[in-house]
Amino acid sequence: MPYTSLTARRCSKTSYCALLVLAVIAFAPFKDLGEPKKRKYISFFIAAASIAGFTLYSLNSLPLVDYTSFRPGSELISSSNEDNDFKSTFIYEKNGQKGVFTLDKLPDSTWTFVKAETVRMNGPKAGGEPPILTFTDTTGTYRDELATSGNVMALTVYDPSGMKGDDWTRIATAIDGASKAGFTPLLLVSGNKARFESLPAMIPEARETLLSHLFFTDRKTLLAMNRSNGGGTWFNDGELIKKFHSGSLPTEEQFLEMTGDDPTDIMLHTSTKGRLRFQGFLLYTIALLLLI
Fold this sequence. Notes:
alpha/beta
């Protein structure tokens, strides 16, 4: 090791030790600091319990604020229409002015070609690129278009082995309710058909319902879409409206009510309510910490 480097490290350690000694001296003698008041202990334990409760809620349910690409308001695109979302344009120049033309409407020979560009006709909304959902049916055919038209309820299972018989029955019930209400139900599972069929036995009625709406995609996509294993996600014409925890999937009556509501209003209400609750929790926790 070079001499200068070794010297610098020794000086750095000496400086840290000196600062530590000065910090200790600044608060000595410690008895002059006084005994902490009881309210500080109470505030500390209340704040700690609140943070622990909030953490458990977020782990066992859905986060109040979603930071994934599959968040409420994001517009879903599928791999099948991704290429059609782009268009080639041609830039020509004449008399010092430039014009943008398409392939079916090119200018006359008096214009000079400058360059060609490929642009997205429906650019992504604020917040980044829209999420792409790709999934296949039991034959391996891509069926991405099913998730981008009308009301769609996507029931996602990223860990099939962690599902119990009652969990599959609850999903089958949600699929039936969604179908009767006019939704397109999709059961998106990670893995393949062979793995799915090797799962523990389900009641015949549930298995038949599940197989008729079964599709496959990767685990990472399903985790981003809905962190609840067996949860549901509502899309309307490709726009993500609301997510449901596995224990709070809509009933048939609730599905019918959802068809009569304005999806955009529900999306804004749900997203705003979650953010307000999260901000309220932060203000509450900060207020408690200030009492310490």
